[in-house]
Amino acid sequence: MKIISKETSKRVCSHMNNDHIDSVHKYLIHYGKISRFENAYMEEINNRYIKINYDGHSAIINFKNEISEEEIHSTLVSMIKEIK
What we know:
There is one protein chain. The chain is of the alpha+beta class. It has 3 helices and 3 strands, in the order ααβββα. It has helices at residues 6-19, 21-30, 72-83; strands spanning 40-45, 49-54, 57-62. The protein has a 3-stranded antiparallel sheet. Helix 1 packs across helix 2 (21-30). The protein is globular.
């Protein structure tokens, strides 16, 4: 079983929310099928999914496969490329 630590989740979420919020919004719209929201941010990432908080609600976006900490970057990049 692949594990993503709470510390890594916190670091990745902070980075995504501060530097790539447009990608977080695209994940929510495309994969989460949520088209209308005022505020959204990445709340958690683990080996199975991304959790995005939007307007006080949560959307879970599952990965195709379980991922490891080493696979986070390539997974998030490939997900954004699939949208375009």
